[in-house]
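re: ur question from earlier - yeah i can do the single chain one, its not a big deal. heres the input i used so u can compare w yours
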Amino acid sequence: MAFIIAGVLLVLAAGAGFYFMQSTKKELHAMIGTETLSIPELERLRGVSDELGARGGFRKTSEVVGAAHPRPEGLLTAEISKTECVWYRYRVDRQYEHVEYRDGKRHYSKRSEKVADHTSFEGYALIDEQGRTIGVDPNGTSPDGVEQSVSRFEPHDGGGGQPIELFGLRLPGFLSDNRSRTIGFEYKEWLIRPGRRLYILGEVHDKIGPLVIGKPEQQGHFIISGRTEQELRQSRTQRHKLLAAGVIVAFVLGLALVVVGIVR
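and the output i got, formated as tokens:
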């Protein structure tokens, strides 16, 4: 029976791997098949759309490259590091010791749970070498390959029940009991500073007047990255190869275990 269960789990893992492999392949093909357009080229295409009577209805899937630039209201301030930026995200995880009683004995295990996760929603812009800008609507998307400004673990002193305030963040209190004891909190933060070179694949539109690139309204890919397109292509190609090999191995081994389990 154990062989059959292990085999089924491996086959299921192969199915999940195949899904991620196909997703990676589609993303790679989207980057290969989408043209990188400059801001003047996009403005020209928008002008043609306006002449055809579609003002406000311009839609164009495109890649855009430029430096991160703050919105008119100014820069944001990251919550934990207090760094000025155009985008940030932070996450706080509680690390705790869990106790289980089995066969009259205590069994300890270290566990983790997310207690806070926030992404800035404000838009920003990309600016080219001539000072021309295009808006960016991040839409809650976490960028790839951006700076991690904080990665820190803070032990907890054991006081329970009262709200905890660290680095300007107010967290709920956690009461320790005979099954759970808070060890500490892990803080992580990522951000995009002004001037950071970005590659963006998305849909350019003029719904609010100025050109903005964001997540496609219909099906499509939306990528924001601090890496170049070439670096992204290489990483996706490598990931696809590793997933393909893993899927084959997991499926064959899983099928073999199921057969062995049935025969036994």
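The longest helix spans residues 229-263. not sure if urs matches, ping me
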